[in-house]
Amino acid sequence: MSTAHPPHHHPAAPAECSEETSAQAPVVTRAGTGFHPHLHDGGTAAPGTGLRARLHHIRAGELDGDTAQTGGMRRFAAISGRTVGSEKLWMGQTHVAPSTASSDHHHGESETAIHIVSGHPEFVFVDDSSGTPEEIRLRTGPGDYIFVPPFVPHREENPDPEVEAVVVIARSTQEAIVVNLPSLYAP
Question: How many whole angstroms separate alpha carbon 91 and alpha carbon 79?
Answer without folding.
Answer: 5
